[in-house]
Design brief:
The complex is a heterodimer of chains A (234) and B (142). Chain A has 234 residues and is mainly alpha-helical. Chain A has ten helices and no strands. Helix content of chain B is 35%, strand content 28%.
Chain lengths: 234, 142
Amino acid sequence: MTRRQGRVGPTRPRLRENGLSLFFGAILLLSLVGQAFTGQAGYNDQALDSGLPTFTLVEYVTSSQFAVDVAENWQSEYLQFLLFILLTIYLFQKGSTESKPLDKRGRESDEDQKVAEHAQPDSPAWAKVRGWRLSLYSHSLGLTMGLIFVLSWLAQFVAGHSAYNAEQIQQLSDPLGWTDYLLAPDFWNRTLQNWQSEFLAVGSMVVLSIYLRERGSPESKPVGEPHGSTGSQG
Amino acid sequence: MVTAVTSRNARRYAAWPATCALLALTGCAGQGSVEDRPAADAAEHFARDVGSDPSAACGLLAPQTRVKLEDEHGPCVQALPGSKVPHDAGSVREVKVYGKDAVAHLERDTVFLARFDDGWRVTAAGCTPNGDRPYDCDVEGS
């Protein structure tokens, strides 16, 4: 009995402490696998109808067609979070869980941010001493999100150019050069259709969290919290 | 024999998004595809064989293209030389490959190709530009 507890003991707390990231990691992989199978089937259906070569699964997941479909969604997600991270420093929404309290505008004081001489013993090492490390670490989340956004968008452009030109050739048209593709409706339509959905999702969350509740969720205010209360979490 | 193959782009596959981004950032995005040469070779062989060895040229047509040609004009070995596809279109001046699709501009023709399991096959030939619209092709599969 005691030995049994000893075996499961260390694993379960770890799962519990990381459940959110593990769950999202798992459904990300499942979704990508599903996208790969359905995307391959869709591509091959069209290819067979047109008498063109089909893709094996491996060929499909390494193709520009799959890459552009993945990248166009990734870039918009990271843009969404980048904007959210940066804009909430300066913009407020009274009553929203996604906004800071109205008196906390800007980068806030070192004391509020627990940096340098205000750091706690268990603060991250780069937060404890002034200098370039503190400056870099103070913006590390935005920089990382921004970098992934730029790389994903670049990947969408490169893969999209290749996928679009393959389609052009299949339709007996000349492929486009890089500059022409940068101005092409295909590139901007892929980009903007993803951006608008992300902006809608963020805007909805900002506004709906003022008036609606989900008991127990940190993304919601406590059920009995007034609508006007800003920045509180349940 | 390919006398000049310009590969302005063309990667076989764009691979993973991160890889693409890195390729683009490191300036590798403009490098030619390993398929440029095989695609150009197929286009040149086809162009050369249309007049001299129609049977071989027919063997280089994509299945659906050949079926359509034969449905409309009879046996390929007679229909192909009788079409508007030039009998000696010359050598490839430029080829562009994207995944399994390619277009080859020869001296006197433009040829579209696709890469099947048994190699590059001609999907359309005898093609003339049509402004911003698709090429007008005398032999095509769709």
